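Good morning C.,

I know you're traveling, so I'll keep this short. The sequence:
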Amino acid sequence: MSEPARPEGLNDDDRLESLGYHPQLNRVLGQFANFSVAFTYLSPMVGIYSLFALGVAAGGPAYVWLTWIPVAGMLFVALVFGELASHYPVAGALYQYSKFSVGPSYGWFVGWFYGMALLITVAAVDTGVVSYTTALSHNWFGWNFDPTNHLTILVITAGLVVIQTVLNITGARVMGRVAQFGVYVEIVGTLGIAIILAIDGFHHGLGFLFSTQGAENKATNALGLDFGGHWLTGAALIAVLAPVYIFYGFESAGDISEETKDAGVKVPRSMRQALIWGGVSSFVLVAALLLAMPSGSDPVGKTVDGGGVPFILGELPSGLQDFLLLLIIFAFFSCGTSVQGAGSRLAFSFARDGALPGSGWVSRVNPRFKTPTNALLAGAVVTMLFVLLVFYSPSKNVEIGFITYPANINALVSLVSFGVSGIYLSFLLTVIGAMVARSRGWVPEGRFRLGRWGWPVCIIAAAYLGLMLLNVVAPTGLTSPRGYFNLDWITLVVMVIVAVVGVIVFLLGRPDREIGTHVHDEAEPTGAERHT
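The C-alpha cells, ready to paste straight into the viewer:
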C-alpha cells in the first residue's frame, strides 16, 4: 500500500487543499510581517504602560524578575502551538488545532472562548488609548476632554475602531505594514525609552532591582495590600499577574497562516521570537523605569500615587513627552489592529466550517482585497457593543447573592480580566487537545516537530497554564490583593456566563454537525492504513 502524502512535501496551498479548504485569502506575508502581527498583539508597551503601577505596588522593584515566569511558561506553550501550526497551517489557529486534535465540539468551544477573549481584548486596548489621546490633544491644541467621560471614550474608541477596520479590510499586506511599523514603535518605546532614562540619569543602583521596598507588609505596601510579610509566597503570586497580563498574543501568528508564505516554518518561528523579544524588551523597560523612580523615602509610594509611568516620564522634556505620547497611541493602535485582524480570521475560519449563525455571510471574502470583510465588520460591531459597557458604572457596591459588584468599576473593566482568563482557558484546552491527539497516536508531520520532547513539553505547558489560570481567577475577596486584578468573583462569573451562552448557542445551532464534515486530513493515514 502506498504511503499517504506528507505535510512537509506539500506547498502552502496544497496543504490547505489536503485539509479540505480552497485557498481564498491573499498569501503575501513574509517572516517579519508574520512576526510583527504576533509581537504587536503581545505589545510590551501597551502592557507595561498599563500595568507597571500595579506590578510595582504589589511586589516592589523585585517584581521585574517575575517577568521571566510567564515568558518561560508561554515558551513551552509556543512550542506546542508551533508544532500544531506547522502541521495545520490554517486560519483560526487554536480552533482548528483543537478541532483536528479532539473533535468538532471540542474545537468549537475552544474557538468560542478564544474568540470572545479576542473581541474583549480589542475593546480593552482601544479604550485604553483614550487617556493618552486626550493628554496629547491638551498639549497640542489646549483641548480639555475628560478621559473618564463616557461620551469621550465612546467617540475616540469608535473612531479608532473604524480606522482599524478600514485598514484591515484593505488587505493583509496593509495589516502587516501597520504591524511592522508598530514593531519599530515598540523598539523605540521600550528599549529607546530605557536608554533615554539612563542618559537622563537613574536615581538608584542595580541593587534596587532586588529589593521589595516592604511590599510584603501592609504598613509599607503602596496600595496597603496585606501579604502577611511573605514576598515569594504572597506578594510575588499577585505581582506576577502584571507580566502574565502581557505575555500572550503570540498565537496570532497562526491565525494568519493562510496569508503567510511558507507558514509551516515561519509561524512557529514567529511565535517563539515574539515571546523572546517581548520578554527582553519588557524586562529592560521595566528595569529602567524602576531605576528612574524618585530617590529618597518611599519611592514606590510616590510613583504609584503620582500615576505610575507618566509620573516617571514627567521629568523628561515636554517635547519628548509629546513624542512618547505619539508612540504610546500608535502602540495601542497597532495592537488593536493586530488583535482585530487575528479575530476576523478566527471568525472567517469558524464561518467557513458553518460554525456560526449567518456563516454564509461572515465567511465571504472580498474579491478585490482578499480579506474576510464581513467578519471584520461583524467583529467591529461586537467590539463597540462591549465598549458601550463603560456606561454602566454603579456608584455603590451591588450585592448579587454572595457576589459583590464593586462600586465605580465600569462593566467593561470587569470584562477585561476575561481577556486574560479566556485566553488562558483556550490555551489550556488546546494543549490538552494536543495531548489527547498524541495519546491516540497522532504523529506530527509538519516541518517543526518536538520529537521525543513532545510529551514533556506538553505536560509542562499544561501545568503552567493550569496553575496560572487558577492564580488569575481564584476569588479571594475584594479587599484581597488579587481583587485588584480579578474583582473577586467577577472574573470567574464572567467565564461561567460566557460558557453558558456558548452552550446555548451550541445547542441551538449544533455547529458540530457541519464542522464534522471538515475534519479529514488527507495527509494523515486512515485507521486502516495505520494498521497495515
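Safe travels,
E.
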